[in-house]
Amino acid sequence: MQATQLSVTGVFVYPVKSTRGIARARVRLTSTGFEWDRQWMIVNTRGVFLTQRTHPQLARIVPEVTPSALVLEAPGLPALSVSLDAGGARTAVKVWDDACVGLDQGSEACDWLTRAVGEPVRLVRVAPDMGRVANPKFAGATPAPLGFPDGYPVLVCNEASLEDLNERLPERIPMTRFRPNLVLRGLAPWAEDHIDTLRLGPVTLRLVKPCTRCTIPSIDQQTGEPSIDPTPALKKFRFSKALRGVMFGENAVIVQGTGEAIERGAAVTATHAAVDDMTA
């Protein structure tokens, strides 16, 4: 297999599913992905997760994880602090078709988020024994544990692919629209389609499935307002019949390196796989 030398230009975590992301200089890798990534989630009264697809105002909720607390900020509200030591009542929640168990984070978080979102909601945290895993059809036979992401532990995006896409759009959009965990430089546009593994020192990630995109990349991640929608442009050359959607970025699972750190600026070795055309 051919190897290519790349570098990391972006590292992002999203502590509360579908709220604003956080750029990091360095992040630790855990068994479920980047530390603190999608470890909390906002759910409705039926326990179903909220998403920017239906609640774009979630982009205006800004999380931060301090040594002792999850801190949330939103326009017009005082900051909310939720202790990292808090337990919580076990409650049934749902992420797409996955029935999961979350830990309810209490009435103060419930009241704050209900005001921020504008409807009754609750905040839940991943239960330690939740047992959710990525789809083995793509992730493989070895279970890939998950918190609350849509389906896979890590999302990898390519700077050159965004540059190519921006040349096809009426206005440029930033990479934050695609909510990646890891951003790479040094690949040709769309070459991520054909990468098998990424090695970052002691960390190895395996790319297992192109990421099909919803409406979230059309939402301004600073304002929560509609903006340039890249979907029509992507449909012209990045539509997969097999996956039934437009593709941008690659979902990845962790092969090794739990407990190690990934840093912005780090060198990456990409190993290329045999060509598998998902656009057919």
Short overview:
This protein has 280 residues and is mainly β. It has four helices and 19 strands.
Written account of the structure:
The chain has four helices and 19 strands. The model has no long low-confidence stretch (mean pLDDT 96). The chain folds into two domains: 3-34 and 133-272, M1 Pyruvate Kinase, Domain 3, CATH 2.40.33; 40-126, no CATH class. The longest helix is centred in the middle third of the chain and has 11 residues, at 107-117. With 280 residues, it is mainly β. It has helices spanning 107-117, 136-139, 159-166, 231-235; strands at residues 3-13, 22-23, 26-30, 33-34, 40-43, 62-65, 69-73, 80-83, 90-95, 98-104, 122-126, 154-158, 182-185, 195-200, 203-212, 239-240, 245-256, 261-263, 267-272. The chain is globular. Strands 1-13-12-17-15-14-19 form a seven-stranded mixed β-barrel. Strands 5-11-10-9 form a four-stranded antiparallel sheet. Helices cover 10% and strands 37% of the residues.
